[in-house]
């Protein structure tokens, strides 16, 4: 299927080189790699494939730009971020289309991501001028304690393919606000949005070398070279827990500051006193948004036995009617999964759940090509042995587990090494408060199916990560605390 003219025109406006030190250049090896539309499997653009040497040059550029960037006034950095926010609003349709083309998500959701991702630019433009320190007397009365916050220095960012814009803005905006320079490696499946966003930053006034982009088809070598370079000061990674563990090991040698936004296995609990209309709406968002490919996706839907039949029926009816098709075209609710592996994972997890006694209420099958599609699916009566209970699904598969007591629901919910987000639906305020205390997650949606917000500290506990992105906390991931003693 040929690209439409406006799609081709947009792709032509995206640079195909590496963004290093304010120029767009070919890879030092001359190599390129192809980016595909997951809805058709066709190549939509080829871009430069960074080598280790290119990555090191990008760090050279970030290091060279660091002092001057840290010395700019916070108002100037704030103004640049605000201009970037405004430009992104003007280009909302372009960025939305680009994400749907390279990642597959429905265009309406891509517009939502431009909204969400853009808010980090606005939020951190406001936070940039609010960083403050502290001045106190020491208890002995012999001096004063001055606490100040200084930029950590050059940062390396590694981002995943599932939110190509928001995962970049969530890291770049606070880093720039704090006065840090950046090298970013986007996921190889979706590099175009990050490249186009770096072009926008240039236009907004970000000086040469402050943000450098090095897409690569390789994974480890480039990162290992940068993580062992003593000039790098910080790693921020969003991706899977196994890759995060490897990166933490690599970062340890350099005792790097790290922020880790890793995998999830979110419980979505529906108590017998829930407002079922809200719970059904909530699960449609928490499960099918991004075609189920979100770290925050409801992975285990834990429903009280007294309402489970009705909940399952209502959700299945909604899911059976969802429209499936190429995300770049208006009106589809379920786009293509990112690649064939993702389709195979959904198929394997459904087959395994059925072997362990679950019932398929709707969907359950891969859809023949072209493209990587899987039917939106609901399965009921999951057993504790099903692999879905432990693994991230990353597809449009909703699995229901039934429970009878509150203690049992909490035990099921916490029975995972992950701890990113939980969702709880109850009309009982006391139960809601008990859940805030008892569920082992960094975030919770209480009668809400989406909790992400630029003003809130996003992040997990347990193996879901270290650190927070967004909120007042987000900028501190890029600031070092310095204490100075001022004797009397
Ligand atoms: P991934 O871990 O496979 O890849 C993430 C990034 O790391 C990509 O840029 C990839 O190229 C790179 N990478 C892979 N192996 C590497 C290596 N050995 N060294 C250096 N870099 C390497 O994850 P993914 O499949 O792109 O994304 C999905 C995962 O991301 C899921 O586990 C999801 O839960 C997680 N995620 C977490 C959050 C969060 O905020 N907690 C947000 C989105 C996605």
TrEMBL record:
Cross-referenced PROSITE patterns: ALDEHYDE_DEHYDR_GLU (PS00687)
Keyword Cytoplasm: no
Single Gene Ontology MF annotation: succinate-semialdehyde dehydrogenase (NAD+) activity
GO process annotations (BP): gamma-aminobutyric acid catabolic process
Active site as annotated: 261
Keyword tags: Oxidoreductase
Highest taxon of source: Bacteria
InterPro entries: Ald_DH/histidinol_DH, Ald_DH_C, Ald_DH_CS_GLU, Ald_DH_N, Aldehyde_DH_dom, Aldehyde_DH_Superfamily
Occurrences of domain Aldehyde dehydrogenase (ranges): 24-483
Annotated family: Belongs to the aldehyde dehydrogenase family.
Name this polypeptide is given: NAD-dependent succinate-semialdehyde dehydrogenase
Lineage of source species: Bacteria, Bacillati, Actinomycetota, Actinomycetes, Micrococcales
């Amino acid at each position: 299927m040929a690209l439409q003219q406006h799609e081709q025109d947009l792709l032509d406006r995206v640079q195909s080189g590496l963004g290093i030190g304010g120029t767009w250049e070919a890879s030092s090896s001359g190599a390129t790699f192809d980016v595909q539309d997951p809805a058709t499997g066709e190549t939509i653009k080829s871009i430069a494939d960074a080598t280790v040497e290119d990555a090191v040059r990008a760090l050279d550029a970030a290091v060279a730009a660091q002092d001057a960037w840290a010395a700019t006034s916070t108002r100037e950095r704030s103004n640049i971020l605000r201009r970037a926010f405004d430009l992104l609003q003007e280009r909302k349709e372009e960025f939305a289309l680009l994400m749907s083309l390279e990642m597959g998500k429905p265009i309406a959701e891509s517009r939502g991501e431009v909204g969400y991702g853009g808010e980090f630019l606005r939020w951190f433009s406001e936070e940039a001028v609010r960083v403050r320190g502290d001045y106190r007397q020491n208890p002995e009365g012999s001096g004063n304690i001055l606490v100040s916050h200084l930029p950590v220095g050059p940062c390396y960012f590694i981002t995943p393919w599932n939110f190509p814009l928001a995962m970049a803005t969530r890291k770049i905006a606070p880093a720039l606000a704090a006065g840090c320079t950046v090298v970013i490696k986007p996921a190889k499946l979706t590099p175009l949005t990050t490249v186009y966003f770096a072009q926008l930053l240039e236009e907004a006034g970000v000086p040469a070398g402050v943000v450098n982009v090095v897409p690569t088809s390789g994974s480890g070598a480039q990162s290992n070279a940068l993580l062992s370079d003593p000039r790098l000061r910080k790693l921020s990674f969003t991706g899977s827990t196994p890759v995060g563990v490897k990166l933490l090991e690599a970062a340890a040698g350099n005792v790097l500051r790290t922020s880790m936004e890793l995998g999830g296995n979110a419980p979505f609990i529906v108590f017998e006193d829930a407002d079922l209309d809200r719970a059904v709406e909530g699960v449609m968002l928490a499960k099918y948004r991004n075609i189920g490919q979100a770290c925050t996706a409801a992975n285990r839907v834990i429903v009280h036995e007294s309402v489970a039949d009705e909940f399952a029926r209502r959700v299945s009816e909604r899911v059976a009617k969802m429209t499936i098709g190429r995300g770049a075209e208006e009106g589809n609710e379920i786009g293509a999964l990112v690649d064939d592996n993702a389709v195979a994972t959904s198929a394997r997890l459904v087959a395994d759940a059925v072997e362990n006694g679950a019932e398929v209420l709707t969907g359950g099958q891969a859809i023949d090509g072209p493209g990587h599609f899987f039917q939106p699916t609901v399965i009921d009566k999951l057993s504790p042995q099903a692999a879905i209970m432990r693994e991230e699904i990353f597809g449009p598969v909703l699995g229901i587990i039934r429970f009878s007591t509150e203690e049992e629901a909490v035990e099921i919910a916490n029975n995972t090494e992950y701890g990113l987000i939980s969702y709880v639906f109850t009309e009982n305020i006391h139960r809601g408060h008990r859940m805030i205390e008892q569920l082992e997650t960094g975030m919770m949606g209480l009668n809400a199916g989406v909790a992400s917000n630029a003003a809130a500290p996003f992040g997990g506990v347990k193996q879901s990560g270290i650190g927070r992105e967004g909120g007042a906390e987000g900028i501190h991931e890029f600031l070092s605390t310095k204490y100075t003693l001022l004797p009397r």
